[in-house]
Amino acid sequence: MTNVKSFLSRQDLLGLAIIAAVIFVLMPLAMDIFRLNLFGKYLTYAFVAIGLVLCWGRGGILSLGQGVFFGLGGYCMAMYLKLEASTPEATAIQSTPGIPDFMDWNQITALPWFWEPFNSLTFTLIAIFVVPAAFAFIIGAAMFKRRVGGVYFAIITQAIAAILTILIIGQQGYTGGVNGITDLRTLKGWDIRTDEAKYILYYVNGALLIGALVLCQFVLKSKLGRLLVALRDKEDRVRFSGYDVANFKIFVFCLAAVLSAVGGAMFTLQVGFMSPSFVGIVPSIEMVIFCAVGGRLSIFGAVYGTLLVNWAKTTFSETFPELWLFGLGALFIAVVLVFPNGLAGLYRTYLGPYVDRWISKKPPSGGTPAPAATPADYDADPAAKPAE
Amino acid sequence: MNVVSNNTDFLLSVENLTVSFDGFKAVNDLNLYVDENEIHVIIGPNGAGKTTVLDLICGRTKATDGSIKFRNKELTELREHEIVREGVGRKFQNPTIYEDLTVFENLEISFPRGRSVFGALTFKRDAEVVTRVREIAEMVFLDTLLGMQAALLSHGQKQWLEIGMLLIQDPELLMLDEPVAGMSVSERKQTAKLLNEITKGRSVMVVEHDMKFVEDIAHRVTVMHQGKILAEGSMAKVQADPKVVEVYLGH
Questions:
Q1: From the candidates A238, A241, A377, which should be mutated to test the interface with B, based on the most B CB atoms within 10 A?
Q2: Fewest CB within a 10 Å sphere: which of A174, B162, B227, B231?
Q3: Which residues pair with A27 in a beta bridge?
Q4: CA B51 → CA B36, B43, B175, distances in Å?
Q5: For A200-255, how does the pLDDT look when each residue is reduced to its tens digit (9 = 90+)?
Q6: Which residues from chain A sit within 8 angstroms of residue B112, using beta carbons?
Q7: Which residue of B has its CA nearest to A247?
Q8: What is the value of ipTM here, to two decimals?
Q9: B-chain residues near A230 (CB < 8 A)
């Protein structure tokens, strides 16, 4: 990345500044730590949603299995925390002290080999990136090299989400089963359950999200971002322009997977457990809805979409628990029928023109008026005028 | 029939090419040669296998048998993007452009640089790219529309844009599938002029139904019928051939 200005326009900077203000200033002032922690949990889903903007909105690759990668990141983190919580002293009452409690309940007497490396925090942090990336690479290479796409790809990713859930639940002794990995306490001796830790983790999460947004904006503003739109539109034309299409799809799928995994790891840290209920088909589809409500073409929209849907979910499910799922279904139908470009589309139509005018009123930093047609003026704004 | 030539005189040598779909031979033991700087037109009735020949050359369809040599390099073993990188460009029958992107971006994506994932991430829109895009846009009559979203172009302009996207790759062999279909008379004339201009330094293969247009541009004509070659030669020679008149031109 050479020059930040080259890929962040004034509009983007404004968008980032507003999100940063909401996360770092507004919400901590407006909420108590319980609500703020909940808000932080929503923000971890935003990582998945912005990954879906790249993958689905721009690239046209609909994955209904992003929960898999969210879960992989979350489980990697949970395994490390669980091992730290399972010291021989803390687990002295078990028949085999020093292993996680659920293993002991399932008559497992030694730590399985694949748990061993998670004693190391360095390994765990690397695994959070590498494990989902490798898994996404295998799926991507197997599917995209064979030119499996569209609905077929969506169904296969959904099947993978179902398989992983069944595997986790079935292998209770190794994974904690349907309860997941619970009772997580400390990170390198630092108690993550205190209010202070929750504040710090919330801010770390927020900073990572801003970082993820900048990274995605860089990708979208590069030629690769335009290629994604081109691919969605006319895959054959891209292929017959000398590009190996599968590699680009694999790349964006892996990137979305890694983003989801970072969200999952931050989820585990803030919420204090990880379970298969964040891996399967239902959460994976919910994540697509977050992205759709926010506007599948805009990474900023996706963040707001995630927050809005989750806020609505919490509010309505507290008040009308039995109606919530119908509400979610209705919301998705409304998005598809009434505002297909989500919140970002509404913003672009009603608010965007005013904001653009306001921004362009201020003279550019050099003070000289822009030349008539700079190469940047030739850029389409795929978030502004998407094809249906 | 077995003309096994190893000569380098031809840019493209298609020999004994056969493709069968579930036993149906869409292209049957076909031999075809394209010279340097030649406009070679393939005509023939519907279902004769014209488009299939183009598909076979560009790798979209895999040959059952036979060989396709481009500058003495076997193309049948290469994948589509590798064939493109060898210097073969293909235009589809319907204008195939990126509707959500601008004319400029459409051309820029086709600019032959930064074709790997990493290359695309670090691709810079430098002076060379901008100059080349402007140059090509002028050739295909779109220089005033660079900032326009491609979806808003007329049908004829979309066809030109796709030709421009191929030209910017500077292919040695350009294959066009019905380039003037759906064009107005004046657009057709402009396209014929364009084709005559771009053939300097490259060969062009065209599949076309419009006989007037074929007469305007063709250096050599191949008539296909039921997957085989019926006649080959200059337009005048082909038009006088009684077999051709019977199966195609007579209608």
A1: A241
A2: A174
A3: none
A4: 21, 10, 10
A5: 999 999 999 999 999 999 999 999 999 999 999 999 999 999 999 999 999 999 99
A6: 242
A7: B117
A8: 0.90
A9: 98, 101, 109
